[in-house]
Write a structure and sequence with these properties.
The protein has 458 residues and is an alpha+beta fold. Helices cover 62% and strands 6% of the residues. It has 2 domains: 163 residues, SecY subunit domain (Preprotein translocase SecY subunit); 266 residues, no CATH class. Its main location: plastid.
Length: 458
C-alpha cells in the first residue's frame, strides 16, 4: 500500500486538489510590483467591506450599537466575515499538525499544506455564510431565494479574501492578509474618527475655530464636542507601543551534541503579541454578539440574557454600553471616575485582561511551537557558538523557558489594553497595537527581504 501524502486518504487529497493554486513567482518580485499587488489587495478588501449584500434590509440600530465596542466591517457587507476564515483555517492546520493527524515527511508534503489550509478556509467560509443566514432567519424572516443569494455572496466574498491572502503569501506582497487587513480596518477607523465631518476631533476643532493656542484648552476638555484629548492620547499611545517593538531576549541554549558549547538565540517578544490581540478580543466579540442576539430574540426580561449582558444607551457616548452581566465584567471602565465608583468591576476586568491574554499567548505558543517556520522567526538569527555558561538552558527545556516568556508578554499585552481603555484612546488599544505591530513587521520584512508569513508564523 502506497504511503499517503500528509497521512490523508485519497478522497481528501482529491478534494484538496480541486482548488486552483496561485503559482509562486519564478524570480524575486520587485518592490514596486509588491507595492502594487498590496495596494490592489487592500482596495479589493476595502470595497468588499463596504459593498452591501443584496437581499438584506437596512441594518437595525441595536446591532450597530453593540458593534461600537469592537472593530469589524459592516455586518451586512459582502466581506463582513473579514479574515476569520483565514485565522480559523490557519489555527486548525496548526492543531492538526500538533495532534499528528497531518504528518509532514518531505518538501512535497509541505507544499501540499498550503492547499489543505486553503481547503479548510473554504469550508470555514461556507460555515460562516450559512450560520449568518441562520442568525438572520432567527432575527427576521427571509425567503428561500434570499437565503441562497445571501449565502452565495458571503461565501464568494470569503473565497476572494482567501485567494488574495494566498497571492500575498506567495511573495507578491509585503505581508499576509491577516495582519494587513486587520491593520487597515483599524487605521481607517482611527482616521475616520479624527477627520470625518460629523464626529472627527480635528475637523470639529477647525470648523469651530478652536485651532488657536489660546482656545485649545476648551477643545481638550469639552464634552459636547469630540475631544482632541483622545487624539493626543492615541498619538502618545501609538508612539509608546512603537518604542516597544524590536525588543528581544537572548536565550542561551546548551548544545545536545557538545555540553561545553551553547548557542545564543534572540527571542522576538513582539512575535507573541498576535495571538492575544486577535483571539482574546474574539472571545469578547462573540459574547457581545450572542448577548445582542438573545436580547433581540427573547427580550430584556430574560434571566439568561441578563446574565450574559444587559445593554443601556449611554448619555455620554451616545451608544449602548453593557451595564450588568458578563459583557459588563469584560468591558474596561469607560472613564477613570468609573474605576473609583466600581472597584470590583475594575478588578474583574483587570484579571480578565491580564490572565486572559497571558493564557491565550501561552496556549497558542504550545500549539504552534512545532512549526519550524514559526520557531525560526521567533528565535531570530543564530549567533556563533560560545562556551557554555552556568545559566544556559538545556535543549530539551527551551520550550518551557520560552513559554514563560510568552505568558509574560501576554500579561503585558493585557496591561496595555487596560491602559488604553482607561486613557480613552480612539478606536481601541488592541487595534493600535495590531496596527503598530503590522507596520513594524512590514518594515522588518522589507528591510530583510524576507517572504511574508502568516500571522502565526506558518
Amino acid at each position: 500500500m502506497a504511503d499517503r501524502r500528509l497521512g490523508l486518504p485519497n478522497l481528501a487529497l482529491q478534494l484538496v486538489g480541486i482548488l486552483p493554486e496561485v503559482q509562486r513567482p519564478s524570480s524575486t518580485v520587485p518592490h514596486r510590483q509588491k507595492l502594487a499587488y498590496t495596494a490592489v489587495s487592500l482596495l479589493i478588501y476595502l470595497v468588499g467591506s463596504q459593498l452591501h449584500v443584496y437581499g438584506y434590509g437596512v441594518r437595525s440600530p441595536s446591532a450597530a450599537e453593540s458593534q461600537y465596542w469592537v472593530d469589524m466591517p459592516d455586518l451586512n457587507s459582502v466581506m463582513c466575515d473579514g479574515i476569520m476564515p483565514l485565522v480559523l483555517s490557519e489555527m486548525l492546520l496548526h492543531l492538526l499538525l500538533r495532534l499528528k493527524v497531518l504528518r509532514v515527511n518531505n518538501h512535497e508534503d509541505r507544499t501540499l499544506l498550503n492547499r489543505v489550509q486553503k481547503f479548510l478556509g473554504v469550508v470555514c467560509a461556507a460555515y460562516f455564510s450559512i450560520c449568518r443566514v441562520l442568525i438572520s432567519t432567527i432575527l427576521g424572516k427571509l425567503t428561500i431565494a434570499q437565503s441562497i443569494l445571501i449565502v452565495l455572496q458571503h461565501f464568494f466574498g470569503c473565497v476572494i479574501i482567501i485567494y488574495v491572502d494566498d497571492l500575498l503569501k506567495k511573495g507578491y506582497g509585503f505581508l499576509s492578509s491577516i495582519p494587513l487587513f486587520s491593520a487597515t480596518d483599524i487605521c481607517a477607523s482611527i482616521f475616520w474618527k479624527a477627520f470625518s465631518p460629523g464626529e472627527g476631533a480635528v475637523t470639529s476643532s477647525i470648523i469651530n475655530g478652536n485651532y488657536k493656542l489660546s482656545s485649545m484648552h476648551k477643545v481638550l476638555g469639552s464634552l459636547d464636542l469630540p475631544e482632541m484629548a483622545s487624539m493626543l492620547t492615541t498619538c502618545a499611545f501609538f508612539l509608546f507601543v512603537l518604542s516597544l517593538q524590536g525588543f528581544h531576549v537572548m536565550l542561551p541554549v546548551r548544545s545536545s551534541e557538545e555540553a561545553s558549547m551553547q548557542m545564543n538565540y534572540a527571542i522576538k517578544l513582539s512575535y507573541f503579541s498576535f495571538a492575544p490581540l486577535l483571539f482574546h478580543d474574539a472571545l469578547a466579540i462573540f459574547l457581545y454578539f450572542i448577548s445582542e442576539l438573545l436580547r433581540v430574540k427573547f427580550g430584556e426580561n430574560n434571566k439568561v440574557v441578563n446574565l450574559l449582558g444587559k445593554w443601556k444607551k449611554s448619555q455620554c457616548f451616545g451608544q449602548a454600553v453593557p451595564v450588568i452581566g458578563l459583557a459588563y465584567d469584560m468591558t474596561t471602565p469607560p472613564t477613570l471616575a468609573d474605576v473609583g465608583r466600581h472597584p470590583f468591576h475594575t478588578l474583574v476586568c483587570a484579571l480578565w485582561q491580564l490572565l486572559g491574554c497571558g493564557l491565550v499567548s501561552l496556549s497558542f505558543f504550545s500549539v504552534c511551537s512545532h512549526s519550524e517556520l514559526y520557531v525560526g522567526r521567533l528565535l531570530g538569527g543564530r549567533r556563533n557558538a560560545t562556551t557554555a555558561q552556568p545559566d544556559s538552558v538545556p535543549l530539551l527545556l527551551w520550550r518551557c523557558y520560552v513559554g514563560k516568556a510568552a505568558f509574560l508578554v501576554g500579561l503585558c499585552i493585557g496591561a496595555l489594553r487596560l491602559l488604553a481603555g482607561l486613557a480613552g484612546v480612539v478606536g481601541s488599544g488592541t487595534g493600535i497595537m495590531i496596527a503598530v505591530t503590522v507596520l513594524y513587521s512590514c518594515f522588518e520584512e522589507t528591510s530583510l527581504g524576507g517572504r511574508p508569513a502568516g500571522a502565526f508564523g506558518f
